[in-house]
């Protein structure tokens, strides 16, 4: 089985879940060729990400002459397919998916991917995210490339599903993967009912071989919380700082560590200073996988205050680390995290509820937190083993290749 993986910008620090999925497929005997439209080497520090960057073919690095040459070759070989692709480019531009110029760039990228897929004898293309990477895969199919599938993660795809033509992409695909039942329900909203059988749930996951040790709960002289992610509006970090300030005033033994960075960092730093919480809140910046693991191991619980999500891998990692979680009741999170069993689930945007949950963690003894963490570990190992997910994908690939 020879599969091409297609992602717009890859790898990124936040794309470790894709890297793990590819590695799991390869462990199970699948040949995977990585395509990206572009790279982001300057943002990478993790050795595994740097190795993945070296293993990835970046389509735009072929240069304009190569891309144009691919288009001309495809046009000469199959004029009908070329005309069909041009019509689709105009249609998608008129529908507002992007400008006509961008559609033509996607078309050229698709022609290049089709040519490379033929040279590499690929059986199938799988794209991640229902955005432009899937559009490129659809153009590649029009130009005689292999059939394609794609994984929709959310929340970005669900912000403009009509503009992204999710229904049309599902119709053109061999199948579509949602990472949760919630994600599948959202795709049902935009797909023709005749295409519902194409939509499959395959959980993203983690490599359980990296989580063999059971971590004991830290001594509870203080209560340490950790949050991991981009400092962006949808991640709810601004709300988290306000909620933590309220909880910290009631319990000065609370401590919060933020792992990540982003546009909201100045506002977050200003709020920390305004509340006088410099000794209570630590900003670690971006960390590689070992740094994230160390921060989780030092904490009593993970906090995920997001307003919009797919199904956060960081929750899976915390659960595998035997750490209970505080998270918001959105998207696929309630499918994984059981309130009162694996942690606390609070309404999104509710600062008072978030503060209350943090105070509950502080009031819970270490033995109870450890027991919750062990149950969380069992649950994530049963539901989110990346090798199980890879085997599900392999079965879908096999079913649709031929």
TrEMBL record:
Would you say which domain of life the source belongs to?
A: Bacteria
The record's InterPro entries line, in alphabetical order, gives: Glycosyltransferase_grp1 (IPR050194)
Q: Which GO terms describe its molecular function?
A: glycosyltransferase activity
Entry-linked Pfam families: Glyco_trans_1_4 (PF13692)
Keyword set, alphabetical order: Transferase
Which SUPFAM superfamilies does the protein's record reference? UDP-Glycosyltransferase/glycogen phosphorylase (SSF53756)
On whether Transferase is a keyword of this UniProt record, the answer is yes
- UniProt keyword Transferase, yes or no: yes
- This protein is called Glycosyltransferase involved in cell wall biosynthesis
Output the lineage of the source organism: Bacteria, Pseudomonadati, Pseudomonadota, Alphaproteobacteria, Rhodobacterales
């Amino acid at each position: 089985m020879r599969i091409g993986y297609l992602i717009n910008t890859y790898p990124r620090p936040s794309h470790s879940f894709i890297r793990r999925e590819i590695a799991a497929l390869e462990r199970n005997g699948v040949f995977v060729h990585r395509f990206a439209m572009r790279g982001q080497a300057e943002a990478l520090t993790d050795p595994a990400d740097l190795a993945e960057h070296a293993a990835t073919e970046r389509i735009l690095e072929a240069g304009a002459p190569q891309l144009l040459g691919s288009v001309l070759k495809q046009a000469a070989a199959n004029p009908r397919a070329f005309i069909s692709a041009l019509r689709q480019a105009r249609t998608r531009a008129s529908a507002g998916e992007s400008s006509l110029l961008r559609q033509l760039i996607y078309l050229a990228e698709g022609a290049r991917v089709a040519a490379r897929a033929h040279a590499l004898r690929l059986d199938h293309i799988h794209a991640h995210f229902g955005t432009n990477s899937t559009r490129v895969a659809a153009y590649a199919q029009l130009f005689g490339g292999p059939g394609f599938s794609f994984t929709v993660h959310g929340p970005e795809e669900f912000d403009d599903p009509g503009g992204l033509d999710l229904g049309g992409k599902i119709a053109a695909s061999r199948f579509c993967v949602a990472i949760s039942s919630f994600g599948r329900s959202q795709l049902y909203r935009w797909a023709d009912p005749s295409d519902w059988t194409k939509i499959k749930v395959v959980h993203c996951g983690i490599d359980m071989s990296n989580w063999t040790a059971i971590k004991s709960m830290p001594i509870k002289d203080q209560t340490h919380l950790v949050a991991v992610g981009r400092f962006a509006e949808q991640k709810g970090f601004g709300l988290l700082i306000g909620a933590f300030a309220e909880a910290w005033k009631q319990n000065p033994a609370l401590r919060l560590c933020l792992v990540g960075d982003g546009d909201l960092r100045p506002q977050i730093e200003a709020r920390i200073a305004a509340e006088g919480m410099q000794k209570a809140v630590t900003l670690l910046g971006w960390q590689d996988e070992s740094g994230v693991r160390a921060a989780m191991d030092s904490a009593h619980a993970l906090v995920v205050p997001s307003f919009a999500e797919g199904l956060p891998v960081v929750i899976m990692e915390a659960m595998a680390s035997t750490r209970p979680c505080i998270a918001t009741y959105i998207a696929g999170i309630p499918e994984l995290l059981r309130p009162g069993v694996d942690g606390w689930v609070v309404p999104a945007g509710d600062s008072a509820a978030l503060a209350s949950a943090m105070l509950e963690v502080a009031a819970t003894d270490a033995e109870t937190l450890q027991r919750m963490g062990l149950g969380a570990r069992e649950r994530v190992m049963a539901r989110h083993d990346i090798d199980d997910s890879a085997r599900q994908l392999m079965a879908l690939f096999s079913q649709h290749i031929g």
